[in-house]
Every structure is written in structure tokens, then in C-alpha cells.
Design a protein that fits this description.
The protein is mainly alpha-helical and 189 residues long. It contains seven helices and two strands. The chain has a two-stranded antiparallel ribbon. It is elongated and about 80 Å long. The N and C termini lie far apart (57 Å).
Length: 189
Amino acid sequence: MRYLISRNEELKEILVADLVLSIAFDLAFNNGMFSFNIFLFLYFLPIFIISTTLTFVLHELMHREVAQRFFGAIAAFRYSEQGLAFTFLSSLFGFFIGLPGAFKLDYIQNMINITLYISLILAFFNMLPIYPLDGSKIFRWNKFVYLFFLVFLFLNMSYIIGLGLTIAYLIIMLFFALFSSILARAILI
């Protein structure tokens, strides 16, 4: 069992990251776009591909081995599209910041994802402007602050679980919060 991907997919991702890193190292070594020389770039490219493969790929595979052998973890390398883009863009300016990706540990990653998911749902629900939730108090205090945090939470939830599911949660939460508010008013009055 692997972390959400097959061994072939993991190999593809590590090779893509390896190629981007090799090109980025070469670009940064040659001062990026400021003094770009295609002949120097092509001359050094095979050197950077071999050097990067021998260091980066072996380094990342050792992360997997240690995680599996010593900790019994399910682990696989996953590249980061944003990290690779940032790595490439930094090299265009003549310096190198490598953020190709990382090994993901299944159990720990699932725990982090579930914790984030629950935290966002609880925060989003609590921000509804219905008494006795905190959202009603923040809404009365400062509508701009309330709207800022509600939009922030909505965007984060949409990014994490998708827009459709976020809207579905919002509708369910509104009905539940409205029912709870009516019940709370009936009890407190």
C-alpha cells in the first residue's frame, strides 16, 4: 500500500521534480535570465541532470526507506506544483530556492488533513451570525471584520473540500444554526 499513489506515479512525480530542479539549478548557475547564454545552459544541463539525480532522487528515496523501515509508515514522494513553479521562477532571477515536494506519510498526513477539516468546519459554523454563536457577536461588533473572516474561512474550506461541498455545508449549517437559535431563544426567554 502506498500513500494515495502507485509506485509508477511516485516515480513520475520524482522524475518531474528532478528535471525541474536540474533546469532551475542550471539557470541559477548561469545567472538566470539576466545574462542567459543558451550554449552555456546546454553545456551544463547534462551535468546538472546527472548531479541532481544522484543527489536529489537518492536523498528523497532515502526518506521513504527510513519512514518505511524504521517507522513502519506508508510514504511516497509527491511533488508540489506551486513549489516547482516557485523553484523555477527563483532560478530565472539567478538564485535558487528549491521547493520540489516532499515525502508524505499517510497516517500523519491524514491526521493533519482531518484536523484541518474539522477545525475549518467548526470555525465556519461558529462564524454564522446567529445567536448564540460567536459569529453573531462579531457581526454586531464589526461587520467588516466579520465579513473578512467569513470570506477567509469560505475560501479555505472551498480550497480544502471543494466549492460544492462547502456550499452544501453552508446550507446545512444555516438550517441547523437557525433551528438552534430558535431553540435557544425559546429556552432562554
